[in-house]
Amino acid sequence: MKDAQIPLMYYTYFQSPLCRLLIAGEDGVLKQVRFLPSQNSVATPSNWLRDEGPFKDAIRQFEAYFSGELKQFSLEIAFNGTSFQGLVWSALQKTAYGNTISYGELAHLIGNPKACRAVGAANARNPLPLIIPCHRVIGSDGKLVGFGGGLMLKQALLDHERKYS
Hints:
Layout: E1 9-15, E2 20-26, E3 29-36, E4 48-50, H1 56-66, H2 83-92, E5 101-102, H3 103-109, H4 116-124, E6 137-138, H5 151-164
Parallel strand pairs: 1-4, 5-6
Antiparallel strand pairs: 1-2, 2-3
Helix pairs in contact: 3-4
């Protein structure tokens, strides 16, 4: 018997020019994007169903982003996080395509200039990279630091955006 309390998540994979992505969501709302280290699939929870159908618009937007045609995503998203994380992620979405912001600048932007480390921790838990562009956050010295997809992918994403800016 299926547990009615557990929502059904849908997922699919998208092969970008830079890496493979896992895209997941429910009820037409995008909830997760994950960078995969290889062409391999990943184990998903038992309440996830592989289906590309719910992600046609997301896939179209990812294709447009990677071809340099899309500068800002317009997808229905939802994320689970603390109110602080939500504040950071919302502010981060305002960082323009092709630009970068430091952790300190992002902390100032949310009105909490001493929260640099907490901003970094919020970025590390970003469930929707690319949509919430945590790859645009750099160290105060301008160097690349921390990124769930690895620093090589972070640099490739920044180079991609600068190419089409």
